[in-house]
Amino acid sequence: MKPVQPCTISTTVPTSSKQVTFRCCTITAQPIKRSNTTSFDIKAPKNWERLLDPIHHHDLQNPIPYSPVTETTTTTRPFRLGKRWMEYQGIRNWDGLLDPLDDNLRGEILRYGDFVEAAYQSYDFEPSSPTYATCRFTKSTLLDRSGLPETGYRVTKNLRATSGIQLPRWIDRAPSWMATQSSWIGYVAVCQDKEEISRLGRRDVVIAFRGTATCLEWLENLRATLTHLPTDGPKPGLDGSGPMVESGFLSLYTSRSATSQSLQEMIREEIKRLLQTYGDEPLSLTITGHSLGAALATLTAYDIKTNFKRAPLVTVISFGGPRVGNRSFRQKLERQGTKVLRIVNSDDLITKVPGFVIDNNEDDDDVSKKRDVQVGSGLPSWIQKRMEDTQLWAYAEVGRELRLSSRDSPYLKSINVATCHELKTYLHLVNGFVSSTCPFRATAKRVLDHNRREKVKNLKREK
């Protein structure tokens, strides 16, 4: 299978017809001639959100019913976490809860997935809209209007991400949506309902991030080499001795504009306020996101634990996230006590990029914790050695992994790059997953019946 071709854009103005290629669409520009009155004749794509939401109900054949909040688990009532809340937040790295998948953990994963879906629903995808790349709803109505009524949470902060890419001068003549530098990326919400706080066993703070939406965010995704995280001490060398993360993700997290704070500054400001307000009571920080949002969630968790010594338990629930950092970054996360649960679709190419994984944590005997080893398989040995020597492409997977597969679902009739990465597919797979030996709830009865028949056959043979 050929690798996905992400968004590409030329920094020069060609004299012949050019194409700006996105992962799920192609936008064709008319021939451009150099002149003082040059203008771009590029139509804004219609239904832009379909680039990020390519799977619809017609892609499922009699799908397992799934709707936000009201139906997230196989149980009829939300489970009362109580004193076990830290276990479900990963304090023991979810040991014994992933295979088979604990029903109560399933409910929590889906609940946080719904918060990410709310970020998608709240975002204005329409390039021709005067409010493009902003949140369509007010903070007080965001959850209700995005399909999450009665969660017990209240949105306290809107979050924006800014690209640090320096654009060429000719971009001023392009449609404004192509050069949108800062855009709404997610929100912070705090559980305020007393009954929900009692059920959860603590007050929960959620930070939810959407995935890639703007052209500049696509371009940041392409900046795939590792770069060192800012540090107060001496700057490490290129041998990978210090924590390194993907350049584009770090740019979106730390860049600011003349009119907007950086995402990092917004989060630090809000977390400081929340810790001052609720720091004396049981508190958790749950950071969740899909795709680019999953990467930003991991960076956010690292930043919070690095800068707030009194930070409570910080948990990341990521869906379809790309790789974020190197081995040193992973080790730092683990020493901080940050808990990361990565929901991965084996058929999703995005989870296999960027770079190569050269560290599979071989000291770990638990098969479910081991990382894939992908040292540029198929590439010439000198290229592989060059990558390992420079460490600029040597990534390491973080946290625990819940691995699913679109091929295990009897309801998905089409398996392609777009649908395998879509958030709705992830929620569908989590909702149906049972265990590695019985991968989907719809097939559970069939598997059990088969095993029962095999046992009967064996008993007859023994007689």
UniProtKB/TrEMBL annotation:
The keyword Plastid applies. Coiled coil: none annotated. Pfam families: Lipase_3. It is found in: Plastid, Chloroplast. One of its GO terms (cellular component) is chloroplast. Residues 206-356 form the Fungal lipase-type domain. Belongs to the AB hydrolase superfamily. Lipase family. PANTHER family: PHOSPHOLIPASE A(1) DAD1, CHLOROPLASTIC, PHOSPHOLIPASE A1-IBETA2, CHLOROPLASTIC. This is Fungal lipase-type domain-containing protein.
